[in-house]
Amino acid sequence: MATETRDITIPIDGIELHGVLAIPPHAMGLVMFAHGSGSSRHSPRNRHVAAVLNERGLATLLFDLLTDEEEQIDAVDTTLRFDVEMLAERLLAATDSVIASGTMPRPIGYFGGSTGAAAALIAAARRPAEIAAVVSRGGRPDLAAGSLAAVRAPTLLVVGSADTWVLRTNRDAAGRITAPHELAIVPGATHLFEEPGALDEVARLAASWFLTHFTPARAKAS
Q: What pLDDT does 43 receive?
């Protein structure tokens, strides 16, 4: 059986967020993507990571935290992408919608990039019983500093060794996270992991993290 892929719309507070849901046969959980600065569900990087997760038996939901109109505004002044509180609230609303549907694979994890990682950490802190794992790719956990100690989901921070400023902020964040966590440094990679093999390593690390931490959650649920 092939992976089932379809476009979905998530209504939230009078707006509609658009996404792409992919569910492989016998999915072992769902990973919701929180896109980063200037990115969307069409991001080739996140689509690549999602495809690897699908191959490993994980369902994925890539969806936009901003509407089309907001994306146009943000493209000019870049303010909305840094409103991590708003992004976290929308991620939470989408998570509640997924849970309420009763049709999505469980458990649920978050994969966040750049400012989307901050939103994912804030949201995970507010849904400790629902979010089984978090992966941050080149994330900005400094923007979620007030929520880091409240995160209960096992958290993987993936950073490129050449992304020096972000690496410093992630090292600082690792010292604030009290949940099980790891800092994984991809040698030679810059912020967008554009170097040969770098994004493949991100996907490998993410798949391993989710599968490791989804398994106990599934066993507990059963």
A: 75
Query: What is the domain-level CATH number for residue 197?
Result: 3.40.50.1820
Domain that holds residue 64: 4-221
pLDDT over 60 (residue 219): no
Euclidean distance between CA atoms 25 and 201, whole angstroms = 24
Question: In sequence order, what are the beta bridge partners of 156?
Answer: 135, 182
> Quick check: 39 pLDDT over 60?
no
Q: What is the DSSP string of 58-95?
A: -EEEEE-SS-HHHHHHHHHH--GGG-HHHHHHHHHHHH
* Burial tier of 14 (Cβ tally within 10 Å: 0-12, 13-18, 19+): exposed
Per-residue model confidence as pLDDT tens digits over 134-173: 999 999 999 999 999 999 999 999 999 999 999 999 999 9
- Domain count within the chain: 1
Instruction: List the alpha helices (DSSP H) in 37-181.
Output: 44-55, 68-77, 84-101, 115-126, 164-174
Pick from 119, 117, 123, 151: which is nearest to 135 by CA? 117
Half-sphere exposure (CA, 13 Å, Cβ side) for 84? Answer: 24
Could you give the CA distance from residue 180 to residue 109 in angstroms, rounded to a whole number? 14
Q: How confident is the model at residue 38 (pLDDT cuts 50, 70, 90)?
A: low
DSSP 108: E
